[in-house]
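Re: your question about Fructose-bisphosphate aldolase

S., sorry for the slow reply, the queue was backed up all week. Below is exactly what I fed in.
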Amino acid sequence: MSVTALKDILDRALAERYGVAAFNIVNDLTIEAVLAAAEAERAPVILQTSVKTVRMYGRRRLHDIVAALVRDVPVPVALHLDHCPDRSVISDCLRGGWNSVLFDAHELDVAENLRQTTAVVAEARRAGAHVEGEIEGIQGVEDDLGSDDPSAVQSLEVAVDFIKRTGVDCFAPAIGNAHGQYKRAPVLDAQRVSDLVAATGVPMALHGGTGLSDEQFTDLIGRGCAKVNISTALKETYLKSSLEFLRGAAERDQWDPPALFRHQRAAVVDMARRHIRLFGGSGRAW
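Result:
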């Protein structure tokens, strides 16, 4: 199946109250492993690329890698640009085949954020793509973007007005969640998810998923978090599996790169399948 529209993926998930795992991939191995997990689980999946990863590879080269690996995957896949405050990068990725973007303009005042997000939505529509929006920063630094300082939370009325006037297809609310590993158990405003979905009918995106309890995931997905971001867990799994293998290689004095790659891949596949099952995405492919 070719890349599938984000709106098609998330609207189904919202209607049936399951979550679609959105994994922040970092290279070809993690892309292939996430796709293998989604295929094994018969689940739709979202491949997310940070601005940092786009710049590291170059937009054209990264898209070519994704396109080659997605080509024969028989489940719905969306290609999403995560947390991007730079309009030029958004335009470049929309021209280059991304079918979803998060315009992260939370550092602007709400009025200017609304104005620019509306323009991004119009640009995305011309490219046949969709847009995730946000008006509050999600606490924590991810891929060199963000801040450890909490962002001001806007009123429900302001958030609903933003969603309706911009026409975003998905919205990322601040509910006490944070990027990276939580230093203590988070206290989440889950009711805000319910209220936003009831007022707009738009799927919510859950950021800062790594470290939440199974019960928190299940509750938030049931309330309308149809897109669930997993970034830290993938990076930690990939790097910790590498460290584990290399320590063993050093002890044995045996250095076999393909064996390392198989070990990394197996760890990422297992991590991805575990999250897909937890979010209720297994068997939801069409």
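Residues 6-278 form a domain with the TIM Barrel fold (CATH 3.20.20.70). The longest strand covers residues 77-84.

Happy to talk it through on Thursday.
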